[in-house]
């Protein structure tokens, strides 16, 4: 199992940045896979985690980005508003928006003022203060669940999972009933790691504790590996294959039996 | 004097039943349909195995009455009629040109008939003969090297050696009125309009009216040979479809223009269907059977085509374009355009779409949804779903077109709107805009042959590094030079076509006096926009060969490319459209036709690329153009919607012949579940048209499927995709065209 420690230079890049102007890596104007409807997906630079299977490894080191004010980014979004219809909107992703909490908050505020539906794609590895600040301006939290054994979690992502799980419980409590609309989970099926019996058991137990809309199962894939190679980084999950359609269906059925709503790509 | 009684549009408006429900009423194919379609598929397979042509009747000049009746499966067909006496056999229509027709026969392995040869080379002047007779003695049509200008590839696809197409007869008139009344009215029209004095103007009209009335009589004779008296109006939905189809059939027996389109028939047929269903004369199943049978006939329309034509217009297209839906013209205006009234979706709009399920996907008839925000949800959802499942639909902006053409218009070919029976188009194919730019850079020389095409074109002052002001200003001047030649060439072609290969039956089914458009075209617009953008925002240095011709371009620095919703280059694209149309409008047209312009290439974008050297945008020599108004392959970097936004900005007011946009996406990129995909497609269409987009082809298909179809075409006899302006059977494309389609921007997300 790949297990790593953060290097000194990485420890700098995982600390939250509190600047008003944002570091944006890129955007996707036709995001049909990052939340409900058609969404403008802003990929923010930087992340507090360093997941071994990250498919956006090129967006994490605060090296490759455009500097944009929240206002300028909203102007860009405005060009695509006509396509959102009733259920589309903006998704702030990356990387992880929690690395730029001040900018993200400002941007979410502007979106809500413009009556645009907002979604956050995040690990929620942040402070309760940041969560509180986001709450009034976020219509949907899409939270990544990585692994339920803290040590394995640390090996796979660079951080233990206690803070994340605590934050989710905190958010769920604060939202109460509204959580059934405002919280979604994203869970990568990484064969041999996240699809083990124990981990799935822990997942199901955890899901039973919180109110949420649905859980999205994402099959592990290797389309992002070339980015690691390009950066000269060692990809630690060599040889791990994507899960079969069958195995994903199995996990889906298991969760549905528990009464949970599951979303997979058909 | 009495006025004409012919008014199909009013009949429709007064009698149609708008349908706002969903597709649950639709019926699967009847046993009879399954039998007929089964036999048809066998024939299609035979045709494919024979290399794409089942047979050619070389002995008969095709007219409305030249052939005995033909059937696919006489005991099971409910709608009858084929172009010759056997389905899928192609016919000679040498009126357009005998040379091309005979060359085609020979290439396909058929010996031309000596009697027909003698008739058309010694005694009959064809359209082609007449046009080239003018070309021969028209000095300005020749290059300094003595070649015809049309051979330089600057203006291409001219209908000077075959029929011109782009005329939609109002075939519904036969069903509504019967031939006898149409005849009487046309003769009365002659009296009403021509007056008694025999002067030149009246004689010209009389000559055309007489051609038309003769063809109406021939139509009656042809229908009688199939056992039908179409002198009287249709009595029920079966007759309505049959009478209407006979009208279309006459057109494709007489003419073989590229675009022989169907028009707008859904609400019309539905009026009869509703009546019959209420009376209990026919069941829903039977009505669907008639529609299925009719569509089978449209799928087997064939024209005699030279392989060179197939390279230009791949996949054996016929453009039997059939529009569905649309909105009524409402009262009042919004943003200067007429508001929409009630919608015109009927159950027959659904039935026609349903043929893609009952008979499987096919590129013909070219089903086209007239989209408006006000369309009922059920129809929007159903057409989105069908588009995703079959990749055989195109969508067009009804709000834009209704403003100019009202609520009874159809589309000719792919994107060209006109009011049915009241307007027609003089088809003009298109010019190769990038080649024109290269002419400027190379002092009037063809960049591939080195031949001088334009005399006296001074060299650019800034030859080492191209300078924007100089290039753009001189390019617009050159556009004007081309506009004059283009208009004149079209005047020659259409003057002669009216005289030597007139569309008798189609014009009989128009009003006696109509509005004409002269339809010009532009290919490679995105290349020129990007080239000018590169020259403006980056450094473009031509690489000259020993003869001083720029054979490549070195670009230093980045430039904004068309397709990223960036005003810096999008405004250049808009300017190109406006400038060209404005230039064209300066030159008087034959019969006072209104100038119109399209951005449309069909699959000819591959061929244009082959005939064009490297361009200043970084495109390498011989690489394909983008189709229609699309951004160049893979230059749209901000995702699909940014690409749509750029195209939506192009001014329809200056491009009234249509702006074609092909959109390809894999299913998984469009959404996670089929419900998501439907919803996302609908929202995408709403947004695109709200922003002023005119047209979009939707291809929702996997790259892997296409690659497989290239390798194993027999597995995919019905695989349909949309290619700039129409759908095509993928396996009928050449390998080259298939590769180009696959490499074209596939918006694929991996995460």
Overview of the molecule:
The complex is a heterodimer of chains A (266) and B (751). Chain A is α/β, with parallel strands linked by helices. Chain A contains ten helices and nine strands. In chain A, helix 2 (70-78) crosses helix 3. The two termini of chain A are 31 Å apart. Chain B contains 25 helices and 21 strands. Chain B is globular. Chain B has a domain at 123-154 and 424-657. Helices cover 44% and strands 14% of the residues of chain B. Chains A and B meet through strand 1 of A and helix 21, helix 22 and helix 23 of B.
Keywords:
heterodimer; A: 266 residues; alpha/beta; TIM Barrel; 10 helices; 9 strands; 19% strand; B: 751 residues; 6-stranded mixed sheet; globular
Describe the protein's topology.
The complex is a heterodimer of chains A (266) and B (751).
Chain A (H helix, E strand, L loop, with lengths): L7 H6 L8 E10 L7 E6 L21 E3 L1 H9 L10 E6 L6 H13 L4 E5 L5 H7 L5 E6 L4 H8 L4 H14 L3 H4 E7 L7 H13 L4 E6 L5 H7 L13 H13 L4 E2 L3
Chain B lengths: L7 H8 L15 H19 L5 E7 L27 E4 L5 H10 L6 H10 L3 H10 L18 E2 L15 H23 L5 H26 L11 H18 L11 H14 L4 H16 L7 H6 L8 E5 L1 E8 L2 E7 L3 H12 L7 E6 L5 H14 L3 E4 H8 L3 E4 L3 E4 L3 E5 L2 E3 H9 L26 H33 L3 H5 L6 E9 L1 H13 L1 E6 L5 E7 L10 H19 L8 E6 L4 H7 L29 H9 L9 E2 L2 E4 L1 H4 L3 H17 L4 E6 L2 H9 L8 E4 L2 E4 L5 H9 L8
Parallel strand pairs in B: 1-2, 4-7, 7-8, 11-13, 12-13, 13-16, 16-17, 18-19
Antiparallel strand pairs in B: 3-12, 5-6, 8-19, 9-10, 14-15, 20-21
Helix pairs in contact in B: 2-10, 5-16, 6-7, 6-8, 8-9, 8-10, 9-12, 10-12, 12-13, 13-23, 15-16, 16-18, 16-19, 18-19, 24-25
């Amino acid at each position: 199992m790949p297990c790593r420690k953060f290097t000194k230079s990485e420890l700098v890049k995982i600390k939250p940045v509190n600047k008003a102007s944002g570091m944006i890596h890129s955007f996707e104007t036709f995001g049909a896979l990052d939340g409900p409807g058609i969404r403008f997906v802003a990929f923010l630079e930087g992340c507090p985690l360093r997941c071994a299977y990250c498919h956006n490894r090129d967006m994490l080191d605060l090296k490759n980005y455009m500097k944009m004010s929240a206002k300028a980014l909203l102007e860009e979004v405005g060009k695509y508003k006509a396509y959102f219809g009733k259920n589309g909107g903006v998704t702030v992703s990356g990387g992880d928006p929690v690395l730029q909490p001040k900018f993200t908050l400002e941007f979410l505020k502007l979106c809500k003022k413009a009556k645009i539906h907002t979604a956050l794609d995040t690990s929620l590895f942040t402070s309760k203060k940041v969560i509180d600040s986001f709450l009034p301006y976020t219509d949907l939290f899409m939270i990544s669940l990585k692994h339920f054994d803290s040590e394995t979690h640390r090996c796979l992502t660079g951080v233990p999972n206690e803070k994340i799980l605590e934050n989710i419980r905190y958010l769920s409590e604060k939202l109460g009933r509204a959580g059934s609309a405002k919280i979604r989970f994203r869970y990568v099926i990484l064969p041999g790691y996240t699809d083990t019996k124990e981990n799935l058991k822990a997942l199901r137990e955890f899901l039973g504790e919180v109110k949420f809309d649905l859980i999205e199962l994402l099959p592990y894939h290797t389309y992002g590996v070339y980015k690691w190679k390009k950066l000269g980084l060692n990809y630690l999950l060599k040889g791990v294959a994507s899960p079969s359609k069958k195995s994903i269906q199995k996990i889906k059925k298991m969760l549905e039996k528990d009464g949970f709503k599951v979303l997979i790509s058909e | 004097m009495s006025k004409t009684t012919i008014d199909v549009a009013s009949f429709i408006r007064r009698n149609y039943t708008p349908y706002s429900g969903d597709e649950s009423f639709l019926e699967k194919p009847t046993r009879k349909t399954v039998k007929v379609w089964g036999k048809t598929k066998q024939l299609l397979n035979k045709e494919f195995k024979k290399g794409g042509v089942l047979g050619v009747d070389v002995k008969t000049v095709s007219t409305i009455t030249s052939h005995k009746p033909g059937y696919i499966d006489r005991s099971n067909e409910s709608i009858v009629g084929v172009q010759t006496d056997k389905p899928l056999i192609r016919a000679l229509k040498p009126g357009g040109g005998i040379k091309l027709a005979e060359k085609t026969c020979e290439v396909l392995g058929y010996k031309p008939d000596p009697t027909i040869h003698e008739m058309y080379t010694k005694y009959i002047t064809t359209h082609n003969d007449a046009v080239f007779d003018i070309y021969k003695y028209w000095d300005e049509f020749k290059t300094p090297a003595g070649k015809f200008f049309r051979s330089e590839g600057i203006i291409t696809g001219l209908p000077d050696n075959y029929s011109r197409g782009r005329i939609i007869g109002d075939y519904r008139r036969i069903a509504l009125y019967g031939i006898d009344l149409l005849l009487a009215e046309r003769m009365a029209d002659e009296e009403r309009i021509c007056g008694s004095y025999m002067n030149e103007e009246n004689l010209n009209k009389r000559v055309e009216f007489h051609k038309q009335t003769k063809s109406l009589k021939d139509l009656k004779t042809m229908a009688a040979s199939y056992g039908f008296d179409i002198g009287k109006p249709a009595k029920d939905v079966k007759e309505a479809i049959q009478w209407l189809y006979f009208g279309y059939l006459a057109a494709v027996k007489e003419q073989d223009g590229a675009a022989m389109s169907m028009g707008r028939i859904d609400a019309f047929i539905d009026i009869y269907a509703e009546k019959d269903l209420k009376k209990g004369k026919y069941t829903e199943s039977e009505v669907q059977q008639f529609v299925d049978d009719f569509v089978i006939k449209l799928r087997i329309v064939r024209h005699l085509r030279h392989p060179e034509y197939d390279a230009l217009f791949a996949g054996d297209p016929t453009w039997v374009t059939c529009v569905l839906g649309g909105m009524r013209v409402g009262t009042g205006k919004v943003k200067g355009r007429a508001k929409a009234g009630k919608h015109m979706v009927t159950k027959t709009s659904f039935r026609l779409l349903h043929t893609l399920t009952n008979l499987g996907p096919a590129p013909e008839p070219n089903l086209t949804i007239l989209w408006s925000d006000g369309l009922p949800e059920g129809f929007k959802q159903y057409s989105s779903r069908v588009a995703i499942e079959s990749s055989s639909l195109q969508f067009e902006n009804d709000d834009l077109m209704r403003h100019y053409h009202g609520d009874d218009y159809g589309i000719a070919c792919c994107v060209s709107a006109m009011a049915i029976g009241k307007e027609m188009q003089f088809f003009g194919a298109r010019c190769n805009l990038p080649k024109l730019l290269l002419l400027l850079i190379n002092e009037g020389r063809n960049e591939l042959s080195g031949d001088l095409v334009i005399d006296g074109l001074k060299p650019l002052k800034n030859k080492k590094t191209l300078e924007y002001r100089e290039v753009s200003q001189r390019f617009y001047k050159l556009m004007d030079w081309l506009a004059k030649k283009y208009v004149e060439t079209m005047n020659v072609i259409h003057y002669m076509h009216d005289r030597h290969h007139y569309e008798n039956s189609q014009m009989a089914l128009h009003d006696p006096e109509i509005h004409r458009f002269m339809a010009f075209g532009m290919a490679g617009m995105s290349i020129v926009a990007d080239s000018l953008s590169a020259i403006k925002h980056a450094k473009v240095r031509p690489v000259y060969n020993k003869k001083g011709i720029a054979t490549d371009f070195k670009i230093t620095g980045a430039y904004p490319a068309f397709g990223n919703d960036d005003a810096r280059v999008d405004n250049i694209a808009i300017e190109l459209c406006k400038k060209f149309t404005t230039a064209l409008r300066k030159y008087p047209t034959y019969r006072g036709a209104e100038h119109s312009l399209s951005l449309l290439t069909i699959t000819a974008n591959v061929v244009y690329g082959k005939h064009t050297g490297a361009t200043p945008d970084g495109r390498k020599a011989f690489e394909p153009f983008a189709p229609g108004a699309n951004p160049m392959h893979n230059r749209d970097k901000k995702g699909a919607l940014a690409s749509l936004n750029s195209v939506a900005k192009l001014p329809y007011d200056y491009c009234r012949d249509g702006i074609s946009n092909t959109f390809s996406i894999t299913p998984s990129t469009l959404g996670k579940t089929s419900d998501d995909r439907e919803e996302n497609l609908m929202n995408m269409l709403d947004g695109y048209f709200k922003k002023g987009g005119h047209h979009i082809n939707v291809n929702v298909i996997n790259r892997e499927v296409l690659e497989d179809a290239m390798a194993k075409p027999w597995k995919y006899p019905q695989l349909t995709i949309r290619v700039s302006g129409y759908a095509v059977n993928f396996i009928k494309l050449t390998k080259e065209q298939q590769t180009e389609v696959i490499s074209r921007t596939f918006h694929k997300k991996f995460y």
